[in-house]
Write a structure and sequence with these properties.
This protein has six helices and 16 strands. It is mainly beta. It comes from Sakesphorus luctuosus.
């Protein structure tokens, strides 16, 4: 069928009623959002954002309602989609923006693609990777992996991807989303080493829409975390330590889930795997820790300072 591209869509969407199919690759995937309220009777109040791209650039795509439980788990980073019967609307201005791995990629931020159950009913097709043709000019997924030795020089809020061997994982803890509300964030702390520094990555891992990963993080697993944000104490407290926290687009992968993920081609990932082959497993196991309370960042030395 006759295809269009994202660049052409942005220029012509206001004058079009029916849109030609799109062929795109998923570059980023947000956590699933539940927006149900007790006083509203919305059927399946779910929403998920994706950043999709073709040869012309990148645009946001939003999946609505019952399409989320049907498609969310199938739509992985790197998946190629053929989209038909979608709608186009002005983009939501307060949405989080992931940092693209390719800094040269053009971003179309004024509009977004909307996939709905009805009016019209979106048609979504997943294209297997072996059927993707070079002439489609779909961009590859690119990452911003850093090593632990590079972390100390990075600014606050810098976006990056990391891989490491887990040496500590804390218990799951809860924090209120807002004061005096009944909604909580679920998170846990973890340490991971990559052989480039004496210090581990300190990771604040909030529960994403991957409960199977979040619950199974344990020492000696190879942990990949994407779209992490650097957190520094900007008050220049000398006792504080730099750490990484998840963002809305973070994805977490552990041993057993790495096969066929796009990041396996990354040079720093290959270097890490090479380094792990030199480790003595029993020695690392002796140093591994799991569970317990992890007070971080460290509280001040005296109560008056606190």
């Amino acid at each position: 069928s006759k295809l269009t591209n994202l660049g052409h869509l942005e220029m012509t969407w206001q004058s079009s009623v029916h849109f030609h199919p799109l062929l795109v690759r998923i570059l980023h995937k947000s956590r699933l959002r539940y927006y149900g309220k007790p006083e509203k009777t919305t059927d399946m109040p779910y929403q998920a954002y994706f950043e999709v791209a073709d040869g012309s650039g990148m645009m946001s795509m939003v999946l609505w309602s019952s399409l989320c439980p049907e498609w969310y788990n199938s739509m992985k980073v790197g998946t190629v989609l053929l989209l038909e019967k979608y709608t186009v609307k002005d983009s939501y201005p307060f949405k989080t923006q992931p940092t693209p791995g390719d800094s040269q990629m053009k971003r179309f931020s004024t509009i977004e693609i909307s996939l709905n159950v009805r009016n019209p009913s979106a048609k979504i097709s997943l294209i297997p990777e072996e059927m993707v043709k070079p002439e489609w000019r779909l961009p590859e997924v690119k990452y911003r992996f850093i090593t632990r030795s590079e972390l100390d020089d990075l600014p606050h809020n810098y976006s990056c991807d990391v891989i490491g061997l887990v040496t500590f994982v804390g218990r799951a803890e809860r924090a209120r989303k807002r004061d005096h509300c009944e909604d909580f964030w679920l998170y846990r702390w973890a340490h991971a080493i990559d052989g480039t520094s004496d210090q581990p990555f300190i990771l604040e891992l909030f529960a994403t829409s991957q409960p199977d990963m979040f619950e199974r993080i344990h020492p000696m697993t190879y942990l990949v975390c994407t779209q992490m944000r650097v957190v520094r104490d900007l008050s220049e407290n000398p006792s504080s330590t730099i750490y990484l926290t998840t963002s809305n687009e973070s994805q977490i992968f552990i041993t057993g889930w790495h096969k066929d993920q796009p990041y396996t081609k990354d040079t720093k990932v290959k270097n890490f795997i090479r380094w792990t082959k030199s480790l003595i497993e029993a020695y690392q196991m002796e140093k591994a820790v799991i569970g317990g309370y992890y007070p971080f960042p460290q509280p001040p030395d005296s109560f008056s300072d606190y």
